[in-house]
Structures are given as structure tokens and as C-alpha cells.
Write a structure and sequence with these properties.
The structure holds 2 protein chains of 2 kinds. Chain A is of the alpha/beta class. Chain A has 17 helices and 11 strands. The radius of gyration of chain B is 17 Å and the shape is elongated. The chains are: A alpha/beta, B alpha+beta.
């Protein structure tokens, strides 16, 4: 067996987690654990990739009606505040500047400003990158341009930004820092009480970096169970078994289903690199508001990489978080599902997104729209 | 954005590695995960290895689940 592992196709690595028989048993166990129909169980995930798995595997359809899995603010481009997008667009329009960013960020509109994509169509220099390494490369290849990387994303995406800033990028390189950390957003949602939650499915890939410790104070304070889960449908089903068990037993702990990649401590080196470069600060989440200690800013030693040290720019912040009628804020907070928004699939589609949730691979509305479109084709 | 894809390390040169994503090879950075060896499976996020994937642990956990889910449900009378 050892040999066959060594030459195994890496994409098959989750293959064991596609064991249909085991998935069937997990689904059955979920029904048993939730057999008291009077009790409703509402669990929130905070990761676009979880929403993708759940929606495209049709997982919600096999759950008993009293077990709900709802999407939270797990889409980094969706929660990026419009003023940051407006800043990126304004900078991109300046001569001798090149903006680099990840693909999904391109199409997110800021009300009244359009998107980076539309700015590029009008001549602004914007380059889509796959990696922070590509952004650095762009700065090396364009010594006459100021290259500005629009750095967004959660705890998985922050370490690459930090490691490159630490390594000493070229002088013509700077960043718009719009990174966010997840736990303060969970706390805000619990505090608001807008949605009564029985637990969280924690974002597996974020947790490969952070480990499980940052979530423990939340379970302790709010008496809410949390389970780190992987991204195969079976991972999510097993995560739900663990959450339901905790609720039924009256426990509120941080547990780990994604044992093949997540440890208690996480990637300590990555955490240290991030802590060297960034410090936490209050930050705004689009259509949610300001959340204490939920953002990152450059420490003073790295302040020279801040875009405002390189490019002088003033912007009038967008007047609206999202366009009138768009209910993306409620979708991000788990208050409504995408189909409850009157614009969904009508005025707002992935081709013509009105709000940020209809953009990209992680926007809740875009994922649900994509799955519905696939269904109607077949 | 927070998608991470498993890959197998084929070769290592300083803090870069050539990895196999199931037929597609690509050079990635090991700057965030230096303690790796050829043959290791790693999760790659935006071109950076962020964590190892432990196949033995995966097997063990699944075996445990098979056992747990095969036993009779004890929550129902």
C-alpha cells in the first residue's frame, strides 16, 4: 500500500473522503441525532469553499428539515469595503501605476465606481495575479511603473503577503492592505443575536494556518460548539455529526474533523511571519460594518510598503455599501438566503452582478446561482 | 480565495519546490512551510505550501468514523 501512496495522484488525496457508503451512514446519524423535530439546529459556515461543497453536492437537500446550514461572511472579496475598491480603482487610473490583484476582485463593483474590470476596460492598468509571487514579479518586470498589490483575503491568504514583504520586495512595490481575520466576525454575529446559531463549521483551510486556538475563547464565552471541517461532502457531514453531538450533550468545544491537515497549533511559522509584519486593527466589512480587531495594518517597520507612501491619492468614499435593493449584507450575515433577495437571478446575475455576493467563486449568491443554472441545464 | 489544492512535492530547490497537482506541475514557494521533503503531500494556496496533508491520519480518522457510524445509535430509545 505504501508504494501506491507514493505515486498517488494528489487530486485523489481526498478520494477516501468520497466514500458514499460512509456518507450515507453519516447522513443517517445526522437524522438520528436530530430526531427531536421540535429542536431546530442552525449551523453557520464562514467559508466560500464550504458553500461551494454544500451547494454543489446538494447536501442541504439530504439534511432533515430541522437542521439548517447557512452561509456567513466567508467570501473575502464580498466583505472588502467599497472604499478600498474605490481606492484601488482611483490608483489604477493614475499614469505609471499598475494594480495587481486576484481574479475574483476584478469584477466586484463599488457603488458608483464600477469595478477594477471596468476601469481596465477604460484603460487603467490592472493585472490579475494567481499569487503574491506574480505580483512581485510584475514589479521586477516593470521598473518604470509603481506596482500596487491589492491584498485581500483571510488568514490563509495573509501569510504569502507577509512573507514577501519580509523578504524585501522591489522599491516600486507597495500594497493596499485589506486582509481580514475571521473570529472577530463570528463574535459580532453572535453578539448581534440577529440569527440564533447552534454552532459554527470552521473554515478548514484558514485553520491549517491558524490552528484551533483562536476559536476557543468564542466557544467559551458564547457557549457555542465549533468544528473545523474539510471540503469533501463527507467532511461536512462528519462535521455536522460532531456539532449535533455537542449540542445534544450540552458541550461547546472546538473540535477537529479535518485532522489530515489541521492541528491544534496550525502553521506556527506562518503565524509568526504574519505577526512580524502586521498588527490587528478595527476594520470595516462591507455591508456588515466596523468589527473590532478584525483587520490588519502594517507594523511601523513595514509602513514604507503602504500604498499611501508611494502614491498620493484622495477619494470620496462611495455613498452606499451596496446598491439600493441589494440584500448582500443580510446574505453575508446569514439572515437571508440568496433566493430571498428580489434581485437574485433577475437584475443581479454572475454576468451582471449588482452586489458583491454575486461575484466569483466564493460569493454565496454566485454559487447558488451557478448550481441552479447547472440543474436547469440537465 | 481560501481554496487550497493538494500537491505532491517532486523536487526542492532552496525555498521553492516543483509539485505535481495530478498531472500539472508547477513551482511553488516553501517559504511558509520549509520543513518538507520530496514525496510529501502539501496543501497549496495561491502558490504557497501552507500545510502538509497527513495521509496516515486521514486513514486512521476514516477507520475510526467507520467504526463509530457502524455502531447502533445510542441516542434513540
Amino acid at each position: 500500500m505504501e508504494d501506491s501512496f507514493e505515486n498517488m495522484d494528489p487530486l485523489q488525496i481526498g478520494e477516501d473522503y468520497r466514500d458514499k457508503e460512509l456518507a450515507g451512514k453519516a447522513a443517517r446519524r445526522i437524522r438520528e441525532l436530530a430526531s427531536d423535530e421540535k429542536q431546530t439546529y442552525k449551523f453557520m459556515h464562514v467559508c466560500g469553499t464550504h458553500e461551494y461543497t454544500i451547494t454543489h453536492s446538494g447536501l442541504r437537500e439530504i439534511l432533515p428539515p430541522n437542521v439548517k446550514v447557512i452561509a456567513g461572511p466567508g467570501c473575502p472579496v464580498c466583505v472588502t469595503p467599497p472604499e478600498d475598491i474605490a481606492l484601488a480603482i482611483t490608483i489604477a487610473k493614475q499614469p505609471n501605476v499598475l494594480i495587481t490583484t486576484f481574479g475574483d476582485m476584478m469584477r466586484v463593483p463599488a457603488t458608483g465606481w464600477g469595478s477594477l474590470n471596468s476601469a481596465r476596460a477604460r484603460g487603467a492598468k490592472v493585472q490579475v495575479v494567481y499569487s503574491m509571487m506574480d505580483a512581485i514579479e510584475a514589479a521586477r518586470n516593470n521598473p518604470d511603473l509603481e506596482v500596487v498589490h491589492f491584498a485581500i483575503g483571510f488568514e490563509t491568504t495573509t501569510p504569502p503577503t507577509a512573507v514577501e514583504l519580509l523578504a524585501g520586495p522591489p522599491e516600486n512595490f507597495s500594497v493596499i492592505v485589506s486582509h481580514r481575520v475571521i473570529p472577530p466576525a463570528q463574535e459580532l454575529l453572535l453578539k448581534s443575536g440577529e440569527v440564533a446559531l447552534n454552532g459554527f463549521i470552521l473554515p478548514g483551510h484558514v485553520c491549517t494556518v491558524t490552528g484551533m486556538r483562536p476559536y476557543m475563547p468564542i466557544s467559551e464565552k458564547w457557549k457555542v460548539p465549533q468544528v473545523v471541517a474539510g471540503f469533501e461532502p463527507l467532511d461536512v457531514l462528519l462535521g455536522l455529526v460532531m456539532l449535533l453531538t455537542q449540542v445534544n450533550e450540552g458541550r461547546a468545544e472546538v473540535e477537529n474533523e479535518y485532522t489530515r491537515a489541521v492541528s491544534l497549533e496550525g502553521n506556527v511559522r506562518a503565524q509568526e511571519i504574519v505577526a512580524q509584519v502586521f498588527q490587528t486593527a478595527d476594520a470595516r466589512w462591507r455591508a456588515i460594518g466596523s468589527i473590532p480587531e478584525s483587520g490588519l495594518t502594517l507594523r511601523s517597520e513595514f509602513a514604507s510598503f503602504d500604498v499611501r507612501e508611494h502614491v498620493s491619492v484622495e477619494i470620496e468614499p462611495p455613498k452606499f455599501e451596496v446598491p439600493p435593493g441589494c440584500r448582500c449584507g443580510e446574505v453575508l450575515r446569514g439572515v437571508i438566503g440568496p433566493r430571498e433577495c428580489p434581485l437574485f437571478g433577475k437584475k443581479c446575475t454572475p454576468q451582471q452582478p449588482v452586489g458583491p455576493c454575486m461575484v466569483g467563486q466564493e460569493g454565496t449568491c454566485a454559487i447558488v446561482y451557478g448550481a441552479l443554472a447547472l440543474k436547469s441545464e440537465s | 480565495m481560501c481554496l487550497a489544492i493538494p500537491a505532491r512535492i517532486i523536487s526542492i530547490e532552496e525555498d521553492k519546490a516543483t509539485v505535481d497537482f495530478g498531472g500539472v506541475t508547477r513551482v511553488i514557494s516553501l517559504a511558509l512551510l520549509p520543513d518538507t521533503a520530496v514525496g510529501d503531500y502539501v496543501l497549496v494556496h495561491t502558490g504557497y505550501a501552507i500545510q502538509k496533508v497527513d495521509r496516515d491520519e486521514a486513514e486512521k480518522t476514516l477507520d475510526l468514523w467507520r467504526e463509530i457510524l457502524s455502531t447502533e445509535d445510542k441516542t434513540n430509545p
